[in-house]
Write a structure and sequence with these properties.
Blueprint (H helix, E strand, L loop, with lengths): L8 H4 L3 E4 L6 E6 L5 E4 L2 H6 L1 H4 L6 H4 L2 H12 L12
Length: about 90
């Protein structure tokens, strides 16, 4: 036995593709709760994102993008992106 445990959280609710309405950067996203969002950026998305390109902090994981955050919020509101553990308002 190797001690490696498979992460099966993505089995029930996998990451979903989402495109930013502003720059068309395409990322993979998963909402585990209202507060927690997982993103996977690729090189093309990092290059397309205007906000990341102007950030003083390198890397999308540190800098984030407010425009993409709005696109994620809108996808949740419209039901295109499920929240795994929706918290009461």
């Amino acid at each position: 036995m190797s001690g490696f445990r498979s992460d099966n959280r993505l089995d029930d609710v996998p990451m979903r593709p989402l495109t930013c309405d502003t720059c068309a950067a395409g990322v993979l996203v998963r909402k585990s709760s209202r507060e927690q969002t997982s993103l996977q950026w690729n090189a093309a998305a990092r290059e397309a994102c205007h906000e990341l390109g102007n950030s003083p902090i390198p890397g999308p994981a540190l800098a984030g993008c407010s425009r993409l955050a709005r696109a994620i919020d809108e996808a949740v509101i419209c039901g295109r992106l499920p929240v795994v553990q929706a918290q009461p308002a």
